[in-house]
Amino acid sequence: MAILILIATILIPPLGVAAKHGLGGTALLNLVLTLLGYIPGLIHGLYVNYAK
Q1: Which residue spans traverse the membrane (predicted)?
Q2: Is the separation of the CB atoms in 27 and 18 below 8 Å?
């Protein structure tokens, strides 16, 4: 399951964050960052899912 979340986070960052943390503030923030630019959303998604 962890590899699927990693792939989802790389391809569609909000989907990966929502899959691991649910639809909450973290997923909403990641969605906004991804809409502003793919790279900020990707960095945030990887940080939230794997640095904590």
Answers
A1: 28-50
A2: yes
